[in-house]
């Protein structure tokens, strides 16, 4: 079976592509390899993928309609799409908002149109985010909760993605599934995420900045668990009456104190962090916590990696990759 994976040079896209290739699937990867963070890390991921049989890569911006249409011409056998390319980051959306409308709105529309024009699209799986829950107070966050109070442009674009996917499912009967990711971390992770930032700062003798005075909790989810959930969902397209459209939370179902997360990093490094406590940043939330009953019921998704196991694995990868 041939899968199109957008964001293939990104953190989650790389791991999803690798797992698909390991199980014998054909993968067509798209990525523009932009400089939101160090492109060298993306190129290193790509180098690994390009050594695998069954992988083809196109350096394409998903908002470029003509370039994306050209991929369809070269790969008419694509039947499933895992759309993970997006402009990520809550804080960066305050600095460069147009990057979000181009990638997350225009790019998402281009990929939905790609799916509509395929000879056969069995399933369109795409990345949403826990950020859509915004100012919701009820925990854990449930897919049945209202999500109409986003507190960042990034979150607003992800909610827009869900609405756009529903409209295409309704109009064209394209099976779509959105996945609301909760704080994904692990080897080959993004340099703008907390695990990477903290490890880098501690090893270089720099202070780490911790927001809301350290009173934060996150549903940290290890990459291997995320990939297992993504592929289980991709293999089971929605069906039945009405629009074939679903949305799931995909998280670890454990809301961990940020200071415990930092403590495990310190233990793994054998070094103490110099901590600077800061106020809450605009667009950020105090706590995330995923209700995963729906994805567990429908796909048997049961994350198995706590931060006690995941953090040492990430730290070891970081040391190996950076030779420190």
Computed over alpha carbons, the radius of gyration is: 19 Å
Strand order of the largest sheet: 3-2-1-4-5-6-11
Per the CATH scheme, the topology name is Rossmann fold
This entry's quaternary arrangement is single chain
Q: Please identify which CATH superfamily we are dealing with.
A: NAD(P)-binding Rossmann-like Domain
Q: Topology, please?
A:
Elements lengths: L1 E5 L4 H12 L3 E6 L7 H12 L4 E5 L5 H10 L3 E6 L13 H21 L5 E7 L23 H20 L3 E6 L2 E2 L8 H10 L4 E3 L6 E2 L2 E2 H12 L10 E6 L5 E2 H12 L5 E3 L15 H7 L7 H16 L2
Parallel strand pairs: 1-2, 1-4, 2-3, 4-5, 5-6, 6-11, 7-10, 8-13
Antiparallel strand pairs: 9-12
Helix pairs in contact: 1-2, 1-7, 3-4, 4-5, 6-8, 8-10
Describe the structure.
The protein is α/β, with parallel strands linked by helices and 324 residues long. The protein has a single domain (2-185, 221-253, 289-304), classed as NAD(P)-binding Rossmann-like Domain (Rossmann fold, 3-Layer(aba) Sandwich), CATH 3.40.50. The chain is built from 10 helices and 13 strands. It has helices at 11-22, 39-50, 65-74, 97-117, 153-172, 194-203, 223-234, 258-269, 293-299, 307-322; strands at 2-6, 26-31, 55-59, 78-83, 123-129, 176-181, 184-185, 208-210, 217-218, 221-222, 245-250, 256-257, 275-277. A 7-stranded parallel β-sheet has the order 3-2-1-4-5-6-11, sandwiched between helices. Strands 7-10 form a two-stranded parallel ribbon. Helix 2 links the parallel strand 2 (26-31) and strand 3. The longest helix is centred in the N-terminal third of the chain and has 21 residues, at 97-117. It is globular. The N and C termini lie far apart (40 Å). The mean pLDDT is 96.
């Amino acid at each position: 079976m041939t899968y199109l994976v957008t964001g293939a040079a990104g953190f989650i896209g790389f791991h999803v592509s690798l797992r698909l290739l390991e199980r014998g699937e054909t993968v067509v990867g798209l990525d523009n390899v932009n400089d939101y963070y160090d492109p060298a890390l993306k190129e290193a991921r790509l180098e690994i993928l390009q050594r695998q049989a069954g992988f083809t890569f196109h350096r394409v911006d998903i908002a470029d309609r003509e370039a994306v249409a050209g991929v369809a011409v070269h790969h008419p056998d694509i039947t499933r799409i895992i759309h993970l390319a997006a402009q990520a980051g809550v804080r960066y959306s305050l600095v460069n908002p147009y990057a979000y409308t181009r990638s997350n709105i225009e790019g998402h529309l281009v990929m939905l149109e790609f799916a509509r024009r395929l000879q056969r699209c069995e399933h369109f799986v795409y990345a949403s985010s826990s950020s859509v829950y915004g100012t919701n107070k009820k925990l854990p966050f449930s897919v049945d909760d209202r999500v109409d109070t986003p507190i960042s442009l990034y979150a607003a674009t992800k909610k827009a993605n869900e609405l756009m996917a529903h409209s295409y499912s309704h109009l064209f009967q394209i099976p779509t599934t959105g996945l609301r990711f909760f704080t994904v971390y692990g080897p080959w992770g993004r340099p703008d995420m907390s695990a990477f930032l903290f490890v880098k700062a501690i090893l270089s003798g720099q202070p780490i900045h911790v927001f809301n005075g350290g009173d934060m909790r996150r549903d940290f989810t290890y990459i291997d668990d995320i990939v297992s959930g993504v592929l289980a969902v991709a293999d089971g397209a929605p069906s039945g009456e009405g629009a074939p459209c679903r949305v799931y939370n995909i998280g670890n179902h454990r809301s961990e104190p940020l200071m415990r997360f930092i403590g495990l990093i310190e233990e793994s490094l054998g070094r103490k962090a110099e901590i600077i406590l800061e106020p809450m940043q605009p667009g950020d939330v105090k706590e995330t916590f995923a209700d995963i009953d729906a994805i567990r019921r429908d796909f048997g998704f049961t994350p198995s990696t706590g931060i006690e196991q995941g953090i040492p694995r990430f730290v070891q990868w970081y040391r190996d990759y950076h030779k420190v």
